[in-house]
Amino acid sequence: MGSYLQILIIVTVGVILLCFGFSLFAGQLAAMRLGWQDGHGRKSRRTSGRPGEPQVCPVCSSILNRGELVSSHAFPSLTGGRDRLMHIRGCYYCLEGYSSRRCPVCGSSLRSSEYLIARMFERPHRRNHVHVLGCSRCKLHSRR
């Protein structure tokens, strides 16, 4: 009687561990299928869009998921108007090296220390409009 009880306990624990392992594996597969993670548990780039479209990173053209943001810094307006100067560094994918960083104006590859220079137009009751002028390298050469 005692050996049957031990076998029953071992089988029950085995089934519970098997269910737990399957749920972990199935969750990882679902995340990979939806494009949330690559095979190593890191976020991966889903698809690429055209720069200038909403929810697309202007540096690497990755389509951003809900809640993903582009790292940028907007400076105060000097004239008091609705347009501001802005530096755009990029999104998670291009800052972490998962996708290549390119300037949409001159097409050159950007190093991690370089950024895009843009103008942001604040519009009441609508989304702000951002116009990319170029990267820190091509805007510097155009001033000369």
Please summarize what this structure is.
By secondary structure, this protein is an alpha+beta fold. It has helices at 2-34, 92-95, 136-142; strands at 71-74, 83-90, 116-121, 129-135.
The class by helix and strand makeup works out as alpha+beta
Low-confidence segments, ≥5 residues, pLDDT <50?
none
Helix content: 25-40%
Distance between the termini: 92 Å
Topology:
Elements: H1 2-34, E1 71-74, E2 83-90, H2 92-95, E3 116-121, E4 129-135, H3 136-142
Antiparallel strand pairs: 1-2, 2-3, 3-4
Description:
By secondary structure, the chain is α+β, with helices and mostly antiparallel strands. It folds into two domains: 1-44, no CATH class; 71-142, no CATH class. The protein is 31% helix and 17% strand. Strands 1-2-3-4 form a four-stranded antiparallel beta sheet. The longest helix has 33 residues, at 2-34. It is elongated, with a radius of gyration of 24 Å. The model has no long low-confidence stretch (mean pLDDT 79).
Structural descriptors:
single chain; 144 residues; alpha+beta; four-stranded antiparallel β-sheet; 3 helices; 17% strand; elongated
